[in-house]
UniProtKB/TrEMBL annotation:
GO biological process: methylation
Keyword annotations of the record: Methyltransferase, Transferase
Domain of life: Bacteria
Protein name: Class I SAM-dependent methyltransferase
InterPro entries documented for this protein: SAM-dependent_MTases_sf, WH-like_DNA-bd_sf
Gene3D superfamilies recorded: Vaccinia Virus protein VP39, Winged helix-like DNA-binding domain superfamily/Winged helix DNA-binding domain
Record's keyword annotation contains Ribonucleoprotein: no
Keyword DNA-binding listed: no
Originating species: Nannocystis bainbridge
One Gene Ontology MF term: methyltransferase activity
Amino acid sequence: MPTPLPSLAAIARVPHDLLAAAVALCLDPVALPVLLQALDLDLLSRLARGPATLGELADGTGDVALEMTLELGRGFGLFTLCDDRHGLTDLATTCFLATSPLRLLGLVDRHRRYVAAIAALPDALHSTPRADRRVWSQQADQGAQADYFRARAGFNEASRDYFRDTAALLARAHCERDLAAHRVVCDIGAGPAAFAAILKSAAPHLQVHAAEVTYKDPAYLATTAADLQGLEVALHPVNVLHEPLPPAIDLLTANRLFSGLGRDGAEGWARRLHAALAPGGTLALVDFFATGEPAHDRSVAALVALWMAWNRHELQRAPIVEAHDDRRAWGWNPPWRCDELSDLLARVGFRDVRSRSVVPPFALVEARK
């Protein structure tokens, strides 16, 4: 049974600086190995039971690896030290325990792959081609897209914990939204429907829909339905570019969608989203958007650099030999800026477009129809 999702109220209670620091730690290729080592040594769960000395933690062996992890982890904000007894910081207890109120272990595990990959970044900066994102656009027919997502079935299932544990970061953008003003919400590209479930729990009156092409996989759909544990979220196995969404949607959300789109395919998506929304309704996009704020954009750059390094690392480890290898589409796709996305949304008919940083590298762009 999956870990219970946090409530929207619990998400709102976590201080912004603490949550931003937790995500920043996962983006730091120097700090992340220390966090991973602490988790692998079970240090966080052991210290969650109470402060302990180095000797107690090492069972008298004086393990250098343990001492290094505690010392460096203290520098990175994970541990405290008082009277020779080590303890956990609020950062560690809030985000990095299995029982944490805003558990981010799925994000940590997802980023584990970047530790070895970061060494490939210099080569990536020299050798990365431009990405081919046609399969994510109306340039690809429904059959080609169906083949693509069938091939991604293993990746999607393996990413379930990542998407569940980061749903709170997406929901953070909606903590101050008046959900009582809405009646029908639909989340596009909903994955395991964790984000949709948080909204439904926060506002039981909402009619909540989750649209996801991967739901066409019966096994993925069944697991997602079981994970909802009876919560009333309607799951729709649809390809949004080619198939209709439910009617009367007055809050349409799409998270981590536009970061996967090329500039030549994004307008088709924007027009589909505009058509799906009821007049007067709100579109809300939470994604890895650059805002123009230096601290936020540094976080976006760090994440995209990790992606590029990992792509290059994987291609060095196992070069492409087959003509239909999906990795041929990998490459550079510049992160979207809020201002250019605002221009795109206005061009297809949206109004009152506005944006802000949520938890770097996540930013919100929203607009009305």
